[in-house]
Automatic annotation (TrEMBL):
InterPro entries: AP2-like_int_N, CB, DNA_brk_join_enz, Integrase-like_cat_sf, Integrase_catalytic, Integrase_recombinase_N, Tyrosine_recombinase_XerCD. The keyword Ribosomal protein does not apply. It holds the Pfam family Phage_integrase. Residues 191-401 form the Tyr recombinase domain. This is Site-specific recombinase XerD. Residues 413-449 are annotated as: Disordered. Keywords: DNA recombination, DNA-binding. It comes from Jatrophihabitans endophyticus. Residues 416-428 have a biased composition (Polar residues). The keyword DNA-binding applies. GO terms for biological process: DNA integration; DNA recombination. PROSITE patterns: CB, TYR_RECOMBINASE. Residues 82-170 form the Core-binding (CB) domain.
């Protein structure tokens, strides 16, 4: 591999008798190296790698030698002269082409366009350093006028996006190190969920029973389905006789610009996608008798609506659809839930709390954590444990008692001996000195023959 070093300074270029450039002798300017990187396999054009800003010729030559050595070892990187902004946008396009979930893609795009590009997008990808990343996150954490400060959990999600993007750049040999790794961030703690008490949940379900969305809310409370999963549930995926439902899709609150797979049109603020996690896809959820009854009654109501609309009914096969058969936008479900909660005079909780309530009821009933995790479609059992472990305070004691009851033991008397009642006539004493109370010739009282034991309680137990 070929390369050279040159000095860059404001002085006029000087050459020797053979026409070769002579380096300036004045101690100013900086040294640069240029290395031949061969031809681009995609375009066939010649590539050159440059490094600049070195104070001496020796530093530039050492950097060139280091680069030549990395090429020889196969560890050299080349950012293809991309800025951070250009790389991140290309990364988003690649993730979308690879089938990233629409909601995740939307979140990534917001982070890139609203946070990363304004702060570090102008930098060359190869020039990005941990200091740039740390400065950006300090700016992101600052309170902004008109909005709440971002909490540690939000910052952790933003950081995860950048870490994933730069990790992909390392794999592609565009950079040699992921500068989003190892930086200091505010510690994020998962907030404790506080679902309704069973009596409060019952009050809400009774109050909402007559509402057009009452069946949806009761199904969420009885199955732990997410909002989008309930909105995307199809009749073909529900077996009321067997008492099971299979989660195949969800409705997400975005307009991805793609035509609806069922009617060919576009639905504002609603599109169909896969469930949130891979472990949540195609999962089987058992239905209790109460939910089965609600769904049977709801189906009769939906059949009447279909008949009333006639040919104008846009059947999407959904269990919970609007009167014309189109999907409910998820934001509309949340809005109606909040209205019903206020009208019922109940403590304010989020719609997602119905899912938390199902988890808390199962754990209180002694259902194993692994079963709860699978039913909810969590990606890992540790997520379930971290979210709901604080709800197990009484369950742990009950489990300990049941476990102890399985071990057969002989009956034992744990009571403490009480002193004998006082009598008017002192007991007889033998000449043999102190003895055992209650035995002829023993000393009176609770004392023991062992004078080293002075505790009254221990004397009685001895």
């Amino acid at each position: 591999m070929k390369g050279s070093v040159t000095k860059r300074c404001p002085c006029p270029v000087q050459r020797n008798a053979r026409g070769e450039r002579i380096a300036c002798k004045i101690k100013h300017g900086s040294w640069t190296y240029v290395a031949d990187a061969g031809r681009d396999p995609a375009t066939g054009r010649r590539r050159q790698l440059r490094g600049s800003g070195y104070a001496t010729k020796g530093e530039a030559e050492a950097a060139l030698a280091e680069h030549v050595d990395s090429v020889r070892k196969g560890t050299a990187t080349h950012d293809e002269r991309q800025t951070v902004a250009a790389y991140l946008r290309g990364w988003l396009e690649q993730r979308e082409a690879n089938g990233l979930r629409p909601t995740t893609l939307q979140s990534y795009r917001q982070h890139v366009e609203q946070l990363f590009v304004p702060q570090i997008g102008h930098l060359r990808l190869r020039d990005l350093r941990p200091g740039h990343v740390e400065a950006m996150f300090r700016e992101i954490a600052k309170p902004q006028p008109g909005r709440r400060p971002r909490g540690p959990a939000s910052i952790a999600r933003i950081h995860a996006t950048l870490r994933s993007a730069l990790g992909a750049a390392v794999k592609r040999r565009l950079i040699s190190f992921n500068h989003a790794v190892g930086i200091d961030l505010p510690k994020a703690q998962r907030p404790r969920v506080q679902p309704w008490q069973p009596a409060e949940l019952g009050r809400f379900l009774d109050f909402a029973a007559a509402d057009p969305l009452g069946a949806l809310f009761e199904t969420m409370a009885g199955t732990g389905l997410r909002r989008g999963e309930a909105a995307g549930l199809r009749w073909v995926d529900v077996d009321l006789e067997a008492g099971v439902a299979i989660v195949h899709q969800q409705v997400v609150a975005i307009d991805d610009g793609k035509p609806c797979p069922h009617c060919g049109g576009r639905h504002r603020e609603a599109s169909f996608g896969r469930p949130k996690t891979r472990s949540g896809e195609d999962r089987v959820v058992d239905l209790d008798s109460g939910v089965i009854g609600v769904l049977m009654a709801h189906r009769l109501t939906q059949d009447a609506q279909r008949a009333a609309w006639g040919e104008a009914y846009l059947d999407h096969g959904l269990v919970f659809a609007r009167e014309d058969g189109t999907p409910w936008p998820p934001v509309r479900l949340t809005k109606r839930f909040n209205e019903l909660v206020r009208a019922a005079g109940l403590p304010k909780v989020s719609l997602h709390a119905l899912r938390h309530g199902q988890a808390s009821l199962m754990l209180a009933a002694g259902v194993p954590m692994a079963v709860v995790s699978k039913r909810l479609g969590h990606s890992t059992i540790s997520l379930t444990s971290d979210t709901y472990s604080h709800l197990l305070e009484g369950v742990g004691r009950d489990a300990a008692e049941r476990a102890a009851a399985l071990v057969p033991r002989a009956l034992r008397d744990h009571s403490v001996t009480t002193p004998a009642p006082e009598t008017t006539q002192a007991p007889r004493q033998s000449d043999g000195g102190p003895g055992i109370a209650g035995v002829d010739g023993a000393a009176s009282g609770n004392r023991t023959p062992d004078n080293l034991i002075t505790s009254e309680v221990l004397c009685r137990l001895s």
